[in-house]
Amino acid sequence: MALAAPVPEVAPPAYRSGAAAVVAPADAGDLYVAALARHGWNSVAVTVPGAHRPGEIDGYLRNLSHRGSLRRTAAHLAHLDVRAVLAGSPAGAVLADRLAARLHLPGNDPDTADIRRDTGLTSATLLDAGITAPRSIRTTRLADALNWAAFTQVTELVLEHPDPAHPASAYYCRTAADIRSAWQHLQPSGTQPLVLREHLTGTQYRIHTLTGPGPDGSTDHTITSIWSEIRTPGQQVCRADLLSRRGLLSRALALYTMRALTALGVHYGPAHATVTFIPDRGPALLSLRTDPYADFASEALRRATGHDPVRDTALLLTTGRRYEAPHQQRRAHVTKVALLPRSDGALDSYLLRTLTTLPTVAATTALHADAPVRAGQIAGWLLLVADDSRAINQDHQVIRAAESLGLYGSPA
Predict the structure, then answer these.
(1) What's the CA gap between 90 and 98, in Å, rounded?
(2) 193: burial class by Cβ within 10 Å (0-12, 13-18, 19+)?
(3) Per-residue pLDDT tens for 27-71?
(4) Is the separation of the CB atoms in 402 and 391 below 8 Å?
(5) φ, ψ at 261 (rounded to 5°)
(6) What are the tens digits of pLDDT across the range 275-292?
(7) Which of 55, 67, 79, 66 is closest to 23 using CA atoms?
(8) CB 129 within 8 A of CB 264
(9) Three-state secondary-structure class, residue 183
(10) Are the C-beta atoms of residues 87 and 291 closer than 8 Å to each other?
(11) Does residue 134 sit in helix, strand or coil?
């Protein structure tokens, strides 16, 4: 019989006024513990099979193990007077929605939970609703994918895992031979569905949202930030610029994203979407995730953007209110820059110090002199903030020059 039983835990924190369940907590999900505690709430960890993590899960009032029975896990959470449920990682997104519905707590539509975790189903749902999305096929059969590609006569395609959180790379394909080769890399077992979709060549944007009840009780989507991404040929993000929300482009992206969220059953909590913009078709959703998102340098970003996804979500869960940025002039230009080595090496101490002391560098990820780096893997991030975009662009040029001059141990 499937059971939900407590797993060994560390000494619990002092009891507080409320509790929220964090399903499959990991990385960003763990940040909810401190954010909820600021409002006097405890956190309950719900672990799920296949989402194991090293070490103990500390900081939580209780640790529960979900063993397949939704009813029993919900009963345990109800006994602990849990008043909110949220995903602590991609692995917990579907279960979090279903537990919230079972407990009659605010959450996303459980009937569309699987759709939100699958790019093929997401595109089909949007197209059925009359909303622009990539044409695609989701199948376990290579023959079906080849036949669809031949029928549609799309010249540029992408083959990808349907789960937007899956670490496997997407493959760009132009020919049937490309599709066959990519298929062998992504589906060695022969049973995993894959998504073959048209490649949309517009600029990609990362859009962060927070959803909750509006003043009249209806679902209200708030766009908290829009980042314009520059990507390498391998589709790695190498630079992201915070987009002003005052322009026509931002308005078009915001209106489209809110329509898509509604169609996909997003009713409550945070989400982050990847949307592309094609001049002759407008915005199109590439992927959507409702698991927590925490960026590096959250304090610096909060000062620059007025929002912090984890803190804003905690405020909504515990009080029903949304964070309102102070009415003050904010620095208008914010950019995240990735360090991307082209070969294996180690960070040069002199050049690293030069970069981290540039005038616009407000924060970085952990960067240590002589730390090893791997070719094609992001070595770290820098956050650039300035009143003038020209200052950011100048420092960005310095960063790329330093990479060529030997930041990773030898000149490129």
Answers:
(1) 14
(2) middle
(3) 788 889 999 999 999 999 999 887 656 555 678 999 999 998 999
(4) no
(5) -60, -45
(6) 999 988 999 999 999 998
(7) 66
(8) no
(9) helix
(10) yes
(11) coil
